[in-house]
Design a protein that fits this description.
The protein is elongated and about 85 Å long. It is of the alpha+beta class and 468 residues long. The two termini are 34 Å apart. The strands form three sheets. The protein has an eight-stranded mixed sheet. Strands 1-2-3-5-4 form a five-stranded mixed beta barrel. The longest helix is centred in the first third of the chain and has 23 residues. Bound molecules: 4-amino-1,4-dioxobutan-2-aminium adenosine-5'-monophosphate (4AD) and magnesium ion (MG).
Length: 468
């Protein structure tokens, strides 16, 4: 049955090539409409977002196929063979000459053709990729990942795989998942009663990485322009629509570069990905624009073609203090920006993406470069905030001066022993350098208009949930 097997994408891309040809496609039935004279069904084979309509008459040569297809359940997997014909609306459809059932799907199949809530679909994460919504989201996710690699590749960045298991806390925030093979109900103890990690697998204490940055910096000091793109893990006990315990991050790191170079790169990257997705995922974006986030296309086109605003943290605080909006969290110089503040800045003050730069040293990570221009009260940090989400990128120029970095590690009470190699980068041919992390799921939320992080990662891991 496989002799003229095509994908639906091939048929939709060049239908004129296949008019009146006999072909076979293999996929899953999304919808079956059996009428007296004919049966129609929508077949999706995963090759593209769109379904191919398959059909046959109730009488004549196709009577058996009519009966077979009419009796199948939604969700069944089939091989459909037939002639490619043109519908009145110009689209191709398949006039069946044969139908072979690969795997039946009984009426208990939970994805009957009707609207389902995203909350319900999360309970069937193993099946939800078969819905339109998740088909659109996960195709876009795949294209966006590819676009990011393409962006960095075109700019001659080296792609570095940083480790998942690590001994250091690169954000210094202590939100780490421990990794151990010790018997946690009865771990070996040191003389003073602490768990003796010297007897653990790595002969030391390790955790899952919260960011590849520190390792990425090492490679930037050799290849000048690098990026890493991998899973990161945070044991943040926050149950919000934009935090996941396991998420993917893209982290470029550039040598001989300062914070302005860093923001320039981030902006170019975001605009590049948006343009790519608008071009290569037009069906998916059109669907989302229609059913999930009205105005999505306009928003993305606008961002792809306009420059991002930049504001200092100090000015941002002044703007927030002037705002008419009642904020839940207090606004004062030195306060960390909360999502409500971030959203106000991007949604109301700017009406698009905005970089906030030069944050107080106390609220940002130890490795960020102290700003002389602000008497060392601020660091050369930047966050990119977007409407609907808030922060999607966090980055900074790094402290390349060894003595100042040492001071910061002490200021944050971090364990100096874990950073000896990181400090050595500052001793041997140190350069001014910068980088950032783009939360990949936050990007996908932005690109799709989907407002919960649980619906843009295939199998979300959040506090209290790790099913599937
Ligand atoms: O701002 P963050 O913590 O920065 C870093 O990790 C730096 N080491 C990056 C760098 O400079 N190389 O995280 C970067 C981004 C955030 O802006 C956000 O988009 C995302 O990662 N992020 C999360 N996404 C989903 N769930 C979480 N719990 C996230 N925490 C951060
Ligand atoms: Mg951040």
């Amino acid at each position: 049955m496989d002799d003229r097997r095509l994908t639906i994408k091939e048929i939709f891309t060049e239908p004129e090539r296949y008019w009146d040809e006999q072909v076979t496609v293999a996929g899953w039935l999304r919808n079956i409409r059996s009428q007296k004279q004919r049966v129609f069904a929508d077949l999706n084979d995963g090759s593209c977002f769109d379904n191919l309509q398959i059909t046959c008459a109730a009488d004549g040569d196709t009577a058996d196929i009519y009966r077979g297809l009419s009796s199948l359940g939604v969700g069944s997997a089939v091989y459909a063979t037939g002639t490619v014909t043109q519908r009145p609306d110009g689209l191709p459809e398949l006039d069946l000459t044969a139908l072979a059932v690969e795997g039946e799907s009984p009426p208990s199949y939970p994805l009957q053709p009707k609207r389902h809530t995203v909350e319900f679909l999360r309970t069937i994460a193993h099946l939800r990729p078969r819905t339109n919504l998740f088909s659109a989201v996960f195709r876009i996710r795949s294209e966006a990942a590819f676009a990011l690699h393409k962006f960095f590749h075109e700019r001659n960045f080296v792609y570095v795989h940083t480790p998942i298991i690590t001994g250091s806390d690169s954000e210094g925030a202590g939100e780490m998942f421990n990794v151990t093979t010790l018997d946690i109900s009865n771990p070996p103890r040191t003389e003073d009663g602490a768990v003796d990690y010297r007897q653990d697998f790595f002969h030391r204490h390790v955790n899952l990485t919260v960011s590849g940055q520190l390792n990425a910096e090492c490679y930037a000091q050799a290849f000048a322009k690098i990026y890493t793109f991998g899973p990161t893990f945070r044991a943040e006990n926050s149950n919000t629509p934009r935090h996941a315990a396991e998420f993917w991050m893209i982290e470029p790191e550039i040598a001989f570069a300062d914070l302005d170079d860093d923001m320039e790169l981030a902006e170019a990257m975001l605009r590049y990905v948006i343009k790519h997705v608008l071009e290569y995922c037009s069906s998916e974006i059109a669907f989302l624009n229609r059913f999930v986030s009205p105005g999505l296309i306009k928003k993305l086109e606008l961002v792809a073609n306009s420059e991002f605003d930049v504001i200092t943290y100090t000015d941002a605080i002044a703007e927030l203090q002037k705002a008419e909006t009642e904020f839940k969290y207090p606004v004062f110089w030195g306060a960390d920006l909360q999502t409500e503040h971030e959203r106000y800045l991007s949604e109301h003050l700017v009406g698009g993406p905005v970089f906030v730069r030069d944050y107080p040293r106390e609220i940002k990570a130890f490795y960020m470069r102290l700003n002389e221009k602000d008497d060392f009260r601020t660091v050369a940090a930047m966050d990119c905030l977007v409407p609907g989400i808030g922060e999607i990128i966090g980055g900074s120029q790094r402290e390349e001066r060894e003595e100042l970095l040492l001071e910061r590690i002490k200021e944050f009470n971090l364990n100096l022993d874990e950073y000896w190699w990181y400090l050595e980068l500052r001793r041997y041919g140190t350069t001014k350098h910068a980088g950032y992390g783009l939360g990949f799921e936050r990007l996908i939320m932005y690109l799709t208009g989907v407002n919960n992080i649980r619906d843009v990662i295939p199998f979300p891991r959040t506090t209290g949930t790790a099913e599937f």
